[in-house]
Specification:
Blueprint lengths: L1 E6 L9 E7 L6 E2 L4 E6 L4 E5 L4 E6 L6 E3 L3 E7 L25 H7 L4 H12 L22 H10 L17 H9 L21 H16 L2 E9 L1 H13 L9 H12 L8 E4 L4 E4 L5 E6 L4 E2 L2 E2 L7 H16 L13 E4 L19 E15 L2 E15 L5 H16 L8
Parallel strand pairs: 12-15, 15-16
Antiparallel strand pairs: 1-8, 2-4, 2-7, 3-6, 4-5, 6-8, 9-17, 10-11, 12-13, 12-14, 16-17
């Protein structure tokens, strides 16, 4: 048997370190080649680290939330063959020189090798799998936070069950719905009626959540945001969208509001190059882009991620819709590549049905602008002196006031309003 040390590889150009997000193996686990060992996060994306060999895990280096340098050892495996590191062997003892005095009895005992049968017993005991721990209801040590999904926590709260008394059978003691059922079946108390709750849950920000927190803090600290909100009558566009969806071909994607918004950006940004830009405030350089690379803020189970629809100026509305859907699915499944998660020149953020009346979106630094459609709702408005019901939407936006003047930002949104309220103009040269 040999030892194989798996080191953190270079996971991206210019990346010197990565954060350990989650381990998928534990010491003693048998792993196979290409099995996922650990998830690490760079500035660009979360990356799965797979095992290049098969073997048994004998050591893990680093806890979730810790940083690992490129080239640092992550996992040590016991493998068949020589492995990639030399086993540490004890230094041979020096024999007494010729003419030296006789060996004492204690020295003879120290040099005496262990009997072969003892070594065989030790090997047999190491190979014997550990017996599974019986399921019992135990209290965790004070300060130890039980691991559980939000749905499990919500159910436990409804049942009045304190999770620190529930044994988790998942990885790292994670509690599942089955564990709750077992706890109740074993006679765990389920208090009836309201009760006082004084639990305090401490959650360390790691992985994507930590990265989001850092980016939002840096953006708000460094960028003087100028917010602008305008009301848009979406009735005509919604009628057009409903017609296109009803008559689309089977292979064409269903249209949402976002592809129309991207069409409007393509129409307007050539006249407002300072908005389709990135500001390197450390170098004092604004880079204006002819290409329109739109970041689409996408909510995932881990947090907000921004995949990028590239070269929207070269796509028609159906192609834009298909690319938005593809990227959203890949992002939510955690399969978006680093290239698909970087390089945007302007961002669109949308809360969909939860859009509310208005928002003040945070700019995706180093970009200088972000726009966000809010919920479309029917409400009474005055048209030609008459009260009529129209489908109305507020369009929220934020701009970097160092690069974009307030007048230019307001004019940009007003022209976008005109395009969206008269959607035929989106498709006219």
């Amino acid at each position: 048997m040999g030892r194989y040390v798996f080191k953190l590889p270079d996971v991206g150009e210019g990346t010197a370190e990565a954060e350990i997000v989650a381990w998928h193996v534990a010491v003693g686990d048998q792993v196979h080649e290409d099995q996922n060992l650990v998830d690490v996060m760079t500035d660009k994306a979360t990356v799965e680290m797979t095992s290049p060999v098969s073997g048994v895990v004998v050591a893990l280096n680093g806890a979730p939330g810790e940083m690992a340098a490129v080239g640092a050892p992550l996992v040590e495996l016991e493998v068949e063959g020589a492995g990639n590191i030399k086993a540490v062997r004890p230094k041979p003892e020096k024999h007494a020189a010729a003419g030296a005095g006789p060996t004492t009895h204690s020295e003879h005992e120290r040099r005496k090798p262990n009997p072969p049968q003892a070594e065989q017993v030790t090997i047999h005991e190491q190979a014997q799998p550990a017996a599974p721990a019986p399921r019992t209801v135990v209290a965790r040590a004070p300060g130890t936070r039980p691991l559980a999904s939000p749905s499990v926590r919500a159910r436990a709260l409804d049942l009045g069950i304190r999770l620190q008394f529930v044994l988790g059978s998942g990885p790292a003691g994670r509690i599942s719905h089955a564990d709750l059922d077992a706890y109740i079946a074993a006679g765990g108390e389920v208090p009836a009626g309201p009760r006082e709750r004084d639990e305090v849950e401490e959650i360390k920000l790691i992985g994507l959540r930590r990265k989001i927190a850092e980016k939002m803090q840096e953006s708000k600290r460094r960028i003087p945001h100028f917010a602008y909100i305008e009301e848009i009558d979406m009735t005509a566009l919604e009628d057009l969208r409903a017609h296109l969806n009803a008559t689309r071909r089977a292979e064409q994607p269903k249209l949402t509001v976002l592809p129309f918004l991207l069409c409007a950006l393509v129409k307007l940004l050539p006249a407002y190059p300072q908005i389709n830009a990135r500001f390197d405030d450390e170098a004092g350089i604004v880079r204006r882009y002819a290409a329109v690379h739109v970041g689409i803020a996408t909510q995932t189970a881990s947090g907000l991620v921004v995949p990028v629809v590239r070269h929207v100026e070269a796509l028609d509305i159906w192609q834009s819709a298909a690319e938005i859907a593809r990227l959203a699915a890949a992002t939510r499944d955690g399969k978006a590549s680093r290239e698909e998660l970087s390089g945007s020149t302007i961002t669109v953020t949308s809360l969909g049905a939860l859009g509310g009346l208005a928002t003040t979106p945070v700019i995706n630094r180093p970009e200088v602008a972000i726009v966000g459609p809010n919920a479309i709702v029917e409400r009474p408005v005055v048209r030609s002196g008459q009260i009529v019901v129209r489908k109305m939407m507020n369009l929220s936006s934020s701009f970097d006031h160092r690069v974009v003047d307030g007048y230019d930002a307001a004019e940009f949104i007003q022209k976008m309003k005109q395009l969206l309220e008269h959607p035929a103009t989106l498709f006219m040269d």
